[in-house]
Automatic annotation (TrEMBL):
It comes from Kitasatospora herbaricolor. The keyword Transmembrane applies. This is ABC transporter permease subunit. The chain crosses the membrane at residues 20-37, 84-103, 124-152, 164-184, 196-217, 237-267. Signal peptide: none annotated. The keyword Transmembrane applies. Keywords: Membrane, Transmembrane, Transmembrane helix.
Amino acid sequence: MSGRFPLFGLALYRRRRMLVALVLGMVVFETLIVVIADTLSPAQLFAGGGRTPPSAFRAFSGSSGDVSIASYPGLLGAGLTHPFWIAIQLTAVGALTAAAVAADVESGTIELLMARPVSRNRLLAERTAAVAAASVLLNLAATSTVAIGVALSPQLHRAVPVSGVFAAGLLGCAFTLCLTGPALAVSAAGRRRSQVVGVTIAFGAVGFALNFVALAWSKAAPLRFLSPFHYYTPGDALAHGAVPWLSAGVLAAVGLAGVAAAFGLLARRDLAP
C-alpha cells in the first residue's frame, strides 16, 4: 500500500474494470432514454387513446404526484428510476461496501491490515470514501448524459431545464448515500460479503416494491414513507428545476446514520475470522 490514502485508492483500483463497465452501461442506457424521449412523444408511449397512466406509474417516473410519466420530465425521470439504473447503483454499492470490512473478515486478510499502523476508523473511512466516489461517478455519468441530450434537443430543453437535470443528479447522490449507510453497517458487523450484497439488493428491491404498492393501493399508502423511493423523486426535480431538499435531507440522514452505526459497530466487534 502506498500513497496518502492507500486503502481508498486500492478499493477503487481492485474494482476498476467493474466501475468502467458500469459507467459505460449507464451512459449507453441514458443515451437510449434521451433518444427515445426526443424521437417519440411520451403521451404516445404511456397515454395512448387519451387514457391517463395509472397512479402507480409514478413509481417509474420518480414523482411524488405532480409529474406524469407521460411527459418529458416523467420519461427522463423513468431513466433515473429504471430497474437497470437501480441495478447498476446496487452493484456498485453492494460490491464496494462488502469489500469495506466483511470481505476481509471472510478471507482472513483483515488481520494483515490491522497488523499495519492502520486504525479501524481509517480503514472504514477510506473505504467509505471509495463507495462515495463510485456513487458520485455513476450519478455524474447519468446526469451528464441526460444534460447533454436536453441541451441538444430544443423540445426537451423547453420541457426540462438543465438545472433540473443536475438537481436530479444531486438527489441521486443522496439516494445512493441512503443505500450505502445501511450496507456499510452490515459490512462492519458481518462476516460474509454475501450478507452485505444480499441486504443491499433487498433494501433496493423491497423499497421499490413497497413504493409501487403504496402508490397502486390506497390502503397501503402510508407504507410509502418507509421506502427510499418515496423520497427519491428525480421526475419532480427535472420538472421543477430544483432539488427537493426535504426529500434529499431524509435520504442523506438515513445514509449518515448508517455510516455512523458502521463506525460504532466496527469499533466494538471482534475481527477474528
